[in-house]
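Q: My collaborator sent me two sequences in one message, no labels, and asked for predicted structures for both. Can we handle them in order? The first one she listed is below.
A: Yes, handling them in the order given. First sequence, followed by its structure tokens:
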Amino acid sequence: MYALVESGTITKYFGYPKGFTLGDVQYPSDIFTKWSVEEKEAIGIYEVVFDDSNKKDETWYINTNQTFAFADGVVTAFYDTAIAKSHADSLWTQQDLDDGNLPSNKSVGDVRGEGLKTTLIRTLKSQVAGILKGTDWYITRNSEKSTAIPSSISNHRDAVRTKQAAMEAQITGASDTAALETLYTFTEQEDGSVTRPLGELPVLES
């Protein structure tokens, strides 16, 4: 990406090489690839330097739009400070009711907007349901035919539910968005394994 700088001000952006007119001169698109850096900058064309130091994982944060600035002979595209997504649900309040903003189908204390904890736990429950579905037929067969459920299957299903409960407790107990992010962040351990504090749901051994 390039920017055109005139009298110290960015006046145009080029997302891809294309011809343009500057003053009375028509420049072809190939100047972006054929001209040297010095030649391009001599007419005010600067390659944009991207500064992503403030950009964060959009799973947990809302990034700002990029801002472009020209200083010390460099055009930089950067993000302002990211905003953490709400880790907890927001609720409709008495103030909302008093101000006339409470929807007719809602009451004070109802969920206004879901936080990360709610969505993460919903995703976890869905994952657990998918895992258990693979062995549900044992339960159905037992119900219909009284065929005993193998202990390995029962133990696996119990282990999945136990781990689910532990994971939900970790999610619920997280103090803020950063703590939630930490739970899901994989790091390499001394033994070379890569794990995350939240852990993983058990896998049925074949």
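Q: And the one she listed second?
A: Here it is, processed independently of the first:
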Amino acid sequence: MLVPPINTTSFFSFIDVAGVLAGAMSGALTARRNRDYHFDFVGVLGLGLITALGGGITRDVLLQHGPPLAFTDVRYLVIAFIGAVLGLVSGSTSGRRLDQLLVVIDAMALGFFAVAGSTRAEAAGLALLPSILLGIVTAVGGGALGDVFSGRSPKVFERGEPYALVAAIVSILFTVCDHYSGNARWSTLIAMAAGFTIRMLALRFQWRTKAVR
């Protein structure tokens, strides 16, 4: 049985939508569970929006191709707000199932944002290396900004889970496969599957980066 071809435009739109929704929910859940600061609903929703849209906005500002996509397409703001609300209302419990859901959402969002960032960079006519870099910025930028607004240094710069490294792997796989194969659809699937798998393995086997000092 032949698999019907994937509509590229719709597929990448799905990547953006799913990444924004997952990122907003993850950011709101993290903010609600923060034990150092007592955020109210404005803080939780705000940090959800920042986590979801911060990386994409940073990417679009660096590309300098008009206003950021999140400001020109209101659907991104609506989706981010819905995700933040879901994180707000579902964060009332701290059970094991919610923890597992957060891990899966975070792993999915990482691949979504990395591929979306590299895709936007390539569409803007950038070369291979800048496309990889902007894919990483898109993937980790929102979380880094969320950490800054939460009053701490970005986790991606500290020892711990190889979050930025996984984003780099996803971006490299996508851009290299797309460059040599010319098939963005399968390059996206390969990169996202690899990123999700590596991220889950890192959590399962507790892979950690070490401090340089």
